[in-house]
Amino acid sequence: MALELLPDWMASLEEEDVAFIKKFILASGSLKEVAGQYGVTYPTVRLRLDRLIQKIKIGEDTAADPYIATIKRLAVNEKLDFDTAKLLIAEYKKTKGAPPL
Asked: Which CATH architecture has domain 9-60?
């Protein structure tokens, strides 16, 4: 796929995320099979998939408001705790006149 056709949400993913998606698809969506390939437990793979889903959703939000998307990305990547992220977003929205979360 040409880079100009690559969706924004996919362009923001890391290489290891894309590799995970490929394994997941080739395993026909079987988390159990993916867990076996990585040599980890099912809950570990489920957590990774949940975080990947969050990253994709954040990638879609980036166009709407890059600041909020950055805060969410920091929380998903555990660089910022969830409560602090909510507080920062709420305060930011107050300055923009938007309703809080």
From this structure: Orthogonal Bundle (1.10)
Query: Which residues are CB-neighbours of 21 under 8 A, at least 6 positions away?
Result: 13, 52
* Residue whose tokens read 């690559």: 6
* Domain boundaries defined on the chain: 9-60, 62-101
Please state whether 80 falls in left (phi above 0), alpha (psi between -120 and 50) or beta: beta
Q: What is the mean pLDDT of the chain?
A: 83
pTM, rounded to two decimals: 0.61
* Distance, CA of 73 to CA of 17 (rounded, Å): 14
Closest to 55 (Cα-Cα) out of 31, 25, 20: 20
